[in-house]
Design a protein that fits this description.
Blueprint lengths: L2 E9 L2 E6 L2 E2 L6 H15 L6 E6 L5 E6 L6 E5 L1
Protein backbone atom coordinates (compact mmCIF):
# COMPACT_ATOMS: atom_id res chain seq x y z
CA UNK A 1 0.00 0.00 0.00
CA UNK A 2 1.18 3.52 -0.77
CA UNK A 3 2.03 5.83 2.12
CA UNK A 4 1.81 9.60 1.48
CA UNK A 5 2.54 12.58 3.73
CA UNK A 6 1.30 16.13 3.26
CA UNK A 7 3.63 18.69 4.85
CA UNK A 8 2.64 22.21 5.94
CA UNK A 9 5.17 24.82 4.72
CA UNK A 10 5.51 28.58 4.32
CA UNK A 11 4.77 29.50 0.71
CA UNK A 12 4.19 32.72 -1.27
CA UNK A 13 3.73 34.90 1.80
CA UNK A 14 1.39 32.46 3.52
CA UNK A 15 1.09 28.74 4.17
CA UNK A 16 0.47 25.72 1.94
CA UNK A 17 0.47 21.97 2.14
CA UNK A 18 2.93 20.13 -0.04
CA UNK A 19 3.10 16.61 -1.44
CA UNK A 20 6.45 15.83 -2.99
CA UNK A 21 7.38 18.90 -5.04
CA UNK A 22 3.77 20.05 -5.53
CA UNK A 23 2.29 22.91 -3.48
CA UNK A 24 -1.37 23.57 -2.77
CA UNK A 25 -2.89 27.00 -3.06
CA UNK A 26 -1.61 29.50 -0.49
CA UNK A 27 -3.59 29.94 2.73
CA UNK A 28 -3.38 32.98 5.03
CA UNK A 29 -2.62 30.97 8.19
CA UNK A 30 -0.89 27.77 9.23
CA UNK A 31 -4.16 26.54 10.76
CA UNK A 32 -6.04 27.06 7.49
CA UNK A 33 -3.40 25.12 5.52
CA UNK A 34 -3.41 22.36 8.16
CA UNK A 35 -7.21 22.05 8.01
CA UNK A 36 -7.11 21.87 4.20
CA UNK A 37 -4.37 19.22 4.26
CA UNK A 38 -6.36 17.12 6.74
CA UNK A 39 -9.43 17.38 4.49
CA UNK A 40 -7.45 16.33 1.40
CA UNK A 41 -5.75 13.49 3.30
CA UNK A 42 -9.17 12.22 4.38
CA UNK A 43 -10.49 12.36 0.82
CA UNK A 44 -7.57 10.19 -0.34
CA UNK A 45 -8.91 7.36 1.85
CA UNK A 46 -12.35 7.25 0.20
CA UNK A 47 -12.79 4.25 -2.07
CA UNK A 48 -13.86 4.81 -5.65
CA UNK A 49 -14.68 2.79 -8.74
CA UNK A 50 -12.29 0.35 -10.36
CA UNK A 51 -11.44 1.95 -13.71
CA UNK A 52 -8.99 1.70 -16.55
CA UNK A 53 -6.35 4.44 -16.62
CA UNK A 54 -3.86 5.57 -19.25
CA UNK A 55 -0.74 7.51 -18.31
CA UNK A 56 2.71 8.42 -19.59
CA UNK A 57 5.55 7.03 -17.47
CA UNK A 58 8.87 8.75 -16.70
CA UNK A 59 10.40 7.20 -19.85
CA UNK A 60 7.76 8.69 -22.14
CA UNK A 61 5.96 5.37 -22.69
CA UNK A 62 2.17 5.25 -22.53
CA UNK A 63 0.79 2.65 -20.12
CA UNK A 64 -2.66 1.23 -19.52
CA UNK A 65 -3.63 -0.26 -16.17
CA UNK A 66 -6.67 -1.22 -14.18
CA UNK A 67 -6.86 0.98 -11.08
CA UNK A 68 -8.56 -0.72 -8.14
CA UNK A 69 -10.80 1.87 -6.52
CA UNK A 70 -10.35 0.19 -3.14
CA UNK A 71 -6.54 0.35 -3.13
CA UNK A 72 -6.26 3.62 -1.21
CA UNK A 73 -3.09 5.09 0.30
CA UNK A 74 -2.30 5.57 3.95
CA UNK A 75 -2.14 9.32 4.53
CA UNK A 76 -0.41 11.56 7.07
CA UNK A 77 -0.24 15.31 7.68
CA UNK A 78 2.94 16.78 9.16
CA UNK A 79 3.17 20.37 10.09
Amino acid sequence: MTDITYTIVEHDGGWAYKLGAVFSETFPTHDAALAAAKRVAGEQKVAGDTVGITYEDDRGQWREELSDGHDRPTTHVKG
